[in-house]
Amino acid sequence: MIGKYFFIKGEEDNIFYNLYYVESLEDEKYNVWLTGNKYTDQPGMCMRERIPEDKFLERVENKEILEIEPPTLFIVTKRNTYEIKEDLKRAGAQWSMSYKFWWFDEKPEKYKTKEVLVFPYTGKKISSN
Question: Distance between CA 88 and CA 76 in Å, rounded?
């Protein structure tokens, strides 16, 4: 379970708190981050929780939480994006005020990007296009 992502059923509309990221297991309790499966430019949109291992596994078994692939976003890698910012907006890109980059939820065809994890956000590249 460590390092895996789980979507919380019934929280589809709550983009800020609909995902568990399992960080570690200590004293028969999972240390998890409650966060969202979509990138948000609002810092601090996650909370730490400790969930007893048996309760967490029961929720998995009952399909209350579903294991998912790690959520990602696509960051535009062009250095000077100011000159194309209107094109990026029309293409659906959003500007991150916190990290100062343009990003997409889905991989765009037109722009070179790097795919990174939504949470925990490190900026570390997963793959490139």
Answer: 9
Q: Where are the alpha helices (DSSP H) in 1-129?
A: 53-61, 85-90
| Predicted TM-score of the model (pTM) | 0.82
The answer to whether the CB of 3 falls within 8 A of the CB of 67 is no
Backbone angles phi, psi at 58, to 5 degrees: -65, -40
Type of residue at 55: K
> In the chain, where are the structural domains located?
5-68, 72-128
Which tens digits make up the pLDDT trace of 102-114? 999 999 999 999 9
Task: Compute the 3-state secondary structure of the chain and give helix, strand, coil in percent, each to the nearest 5.
Answer: 15, 35, 50
As given in the structure block, the two tokens for residue 18 are 């609909």
